[in-house]
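Schema walkthrough. Field components (list of strings):
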Amino acid sequence: MDTNLARSFLALLARFLSGASVRWIDSQPDTCQRVYFANHTSHLDPIMIWSALPPAVRMLTRPVAAKDYWTKGPVRRYLANQLFSAILIDREEIKVHQSPVDLIIREIGHNYSLILFPEGGRQSGREIGEFKSGLYYLCKKRPDLELVPVHIDNMNRILPRGEVLPVPMLSCVSFGPPMWLEAGESKTNFLGRAREAVRKMKESREV
Amino acid sequence: MSLIGAVLVLLGAAEVIVWALRRNPSGNIDAAILETFRLRVHAWWILLATLATAFLLGHVVTVVLFGLISFWALREFITLTPTRPGDHTTLFLVFTVVPLLQYVLVGLGAYGLYIIFIPVYVFLLIPPMIALSGDYKRFLERTAKIQVGLLICVYCLSYAPALLTLKLPELAPGVADSGGNVRLLFFFVLVVQLSDALQYAWSQSPNKHVIVPTINTTRTWEGLLGGTASVTLIAAALWWATPFHGPKWWMAAAMGAVISLMCFAGGITMSAIKRDRGVSDFGTLVEGHGGVLDRIDSLCFAAPVFFHCTRWWLMQM
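Field assembly_structure (string):
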């Protein structure tokens, strides 16, 4: 099947099945190089963000995903490699000379944007976990990347950790205002600020 | 068909009025109310087009259409309702099997089954399934939330397409009332929409006695009584388009009153739920219209009552 067609079809399907409403808060879709970083509660999260982006942006955006999950079975492999052109990270074996950050930087070149989940793994609670330092090291090497905080609501109810069957509740993807790593900003400070930006998107959703 | 024609004229007139008022804003009319009205008229166009298409394509399409509306409304309802991880499997069944089976039963016209499937069997099945998850926290509350969601969004709404399978009395001995079911359903949806609109219109009158200020500040006694009175008159005037013809014309009027009261009941119930959850709308499917559930709350509450009254009265005579 034509890959572009399959992509549009999958995005439509994901939008319908998740019933996701998309909000851009003080933020605009853009094809410039960005890192969309979000909270992570479900395997469907990368698809949610990917399908929430306008097609032109979607074409240039690649999710960073776990190799062990996305290489299991032909369907997942097809989705990860052909459709999302995901950047797969080996979680079990992190080598020093082949660090995930270097791999990501090499893969995105000067065209692609990223979808990233800095919590590392899926969280089971409603709270947003501490951010891993990968985002910081990535930005240190590429301070020109625009960082867009994203909050995915309700996915922890739709497909929680440990469940196989998704319950088709409605979710909401909120994109926040872009931020950057400030010159000389400390790691803790930066990661705290990034996490706060996602949390802000979450709060804007709660009444 | 003349009923659809009348609605087309009415909507056309509304569109012209909105257009004229927007061109020449006068001081008497609030711009916000006009905007609400404009969006409403657009929603009615969509509703009319969808219903007409479904009617033309036949019973099955209409039942499927209502099934999809139920499914979407249920999503909005459960999304707003706090659930616990232990409810996951139950919710999966509630979303997949239950609406599907209910609408299949309605489509088959299995009256004896679709009236009890949800309120007896599904309602009995939900509590043990939640108990099996091992999570007993707020057990009754969780059970009740899922049950009410199913009752309003799936069970009640499914009575609307069930009108298509109702056996109507013959017009004359040996002459079946062909198309009578479609007209009945159309009459029902039309009267529900008119009830909503007229109750809102009457509540704009200068005298405002709000019924329950803690729940909803727009629903007034003037709206309820004025709306019900005018809907009763309109429904009576439409008797020729319903199976309540000839000496039964007064039933059309009574149906108007019943529908209007149920619309009020639906509106106030859903307002209470929304107040409790601290939201103004159930969803955001169409900008400016809130969610599906915000549009169909009256329909859900009126459908079973209208169905049973119709069935009972027509069988009696």
